[in-house]
Design brief:
Layout lengths: L7 H12 L12 E2 L12 H12 L17 H14 L3 E5 L2 H11 L6 E5 L4 H9 L3 E5 L4 H13 L6 E6 L11 H10 L3 E5 L24 E6 L9 E5 L1 H10 L1 H4 L6 H16 L2 H19 L9 E7 L1 H13 L2 E2 L1 E3 L9 E6 L6 H15 L2
Parallel strand pairs: 1-10, 3-4, 3-5, 5-6, 6-7
Antiparallel strand pairs: 2-8, 7-8, 9-12, 11-12
Helix pairs in contact: 2-10, 3-10, 4-5, 6-7, 11-13
Length: 378
């Protein structure tokens, strides 16, 4: 067998994806931003840039140089964690390199052998991967159905489950833009002596008092663990797990993705701290974004699409090829809108994911929907 033949099965797999209009490729930034998660426009903000520049000038290193348990535990990491715990109302916080690894790390570490993890069926891929890589039993529940979660726990108990249940949900879903019934899920958790894990990735910075998220009123409870990403509305990178101190101590001692990974750049900790200050100091950013959400919702409804009520607005197309064609048509007109296809979303629900950020204005939103109406009728 020659060397090229070793690659045949990979090429065949890619051809299969292409036939299903599911082949992916990297593309650069171009056009008006209707695709990013930079909801508050902080990634390019002068305050974030100045905070990082000042830190560099004062000697903060670019890299952490090692894991947190070796020489990579910088003062900036600890300052961010203390500030985040206060800001979000939790007992303690831990800083990770990204949201994916934080989700994966949490669900591979805290649920124990004999426990049960109940995942919302539409929760992020990182949660699915983390749950299945861990030691607990895993089941899925219907999307945003607290009764289904309770039924799954009851069925597990009936079959002899004796451990601790864990309920995992996103507060604001990344592809549908809808909200989880957090209070109902909390009631289920309390009723079954369960933990509730909430991924606030797309709500942090945008929703709740001072942008503290949709689960802000639940933080600080002994049975609540929350993830806040720093790479979306906060404009930088990394993620924070907020939880009871004993669970954070357990992660430091038992979580392999935390123990063995090089720590995040201390400069990203500086940026995240500044972003938290901006959330408190500049509420007008959230107000301006809310205006764009309302406008986009009205324009979508006028075209026959259901508004999501959030900064994530899906336009369900159904067919993979048509979703790609619509996205390409909009991109050619100068609008950076991406087509989302399975397996990221369920089969038959390929869509345009319109993301509303402060990198665009009301005129841009109106122009996008005018273009969408024309492309849809082609």
């Amino acid at each position: 067998m020659n060397g090229r033949a070793l690659l045949d099965r990979y090429e065949a797999s890619l051809r299969g994806l292409a036939r299903k209009s599911r082949l992916r490729a990297l593309s650069g930034r171009s056009g008006l931003d209707f695709a990013s998660n930079d909801y508050l426009g902080l990634a390019g903000s002068k305050r974030l840039a100045d905070s990082v520049a000042t830190a560099l000038a004062n000697g903060t290193p670019v890299g952490a140089t090692g894991s947190r348990l070796l020489r990579g535990n910088d003062p900036e990491h600890e300052a961010l964690e203390a500030k985040a715990a206060r800001f979000f109302g939790a007992e303690r916080a831990l800083f990770f390199g990204g949201g994916y690894v934080a989700n994966f790390a949490m669900l591979t570490t805290l649920p124990q052998k004999g426990d049960l993890i109940v995942l919302d069926e539409l929760i992020h891929a990182s949660a699915h991967e983390g749950a299945r890589a861990g030691r607990a039993e895993v089941v899925e529940a219907r999307h945003n159905d607290a009764n289904a979660v309770g039924d799954a726990i009851s069925a597990w108990r009936t079959k002899g489950g004796t451990g601790r249940p864990w309920i995992a949900a996103e507060s604001l879903y990344s592809m549908d833009g809808d909200r989880a019934p957090l209070d109902e899920l909390m009631a289920v958790a309390d009723r079954h002596d369960a933990f509730l894990f909430v991924d606030e990735a797309h709500a942090t910075g945008v929703h709740g008092p001072d942008g503290r998220g949709l689960a802000h009123h639940l933080e600080g409870r002994d049975n609540v663990v929350v993830l806040h990403t720093c790479g979306k509305a906060l404009g930088g990178s990394g993620a924070l797990i907020t939880a009871p101190a004993v669970l954070c101590d357990y992660i430091v001692n038992r979580c392999r993705p935390f123990i063995y990974a090089t720590a995040p750049s201390p400069l990203m900790a500086v940026a995240a701290m500044e972003a938290l200050d901006i959330l408190a100091d500049e509420p007008e950013r959230r107000e301006q974004l809310a205006g764009l959400v309302a406008l986009a919702g009205k324009r979508a409804q006028a075209l026959g699409f259901k508004p999501s009520g959030s900064q994530i607005l899906p336009i369900i197309v159904g067919d993979n090829g048509r979703a790609v064609a619509l996205a390409e048509g909009l991109q050619a007109r100068g609008f950076d809108v991406r087509g989302i296809r399975p397996p990221t979303v369920p089969e038959g629900t390929a869509r345009l994911r319109i993301s509303l950020t402060l990198n665009i204005g009301e005129h841009d939103v109106s122009a996008l929907f005018n273009a969408l109406a024309e492309e849809w009728d082609r």
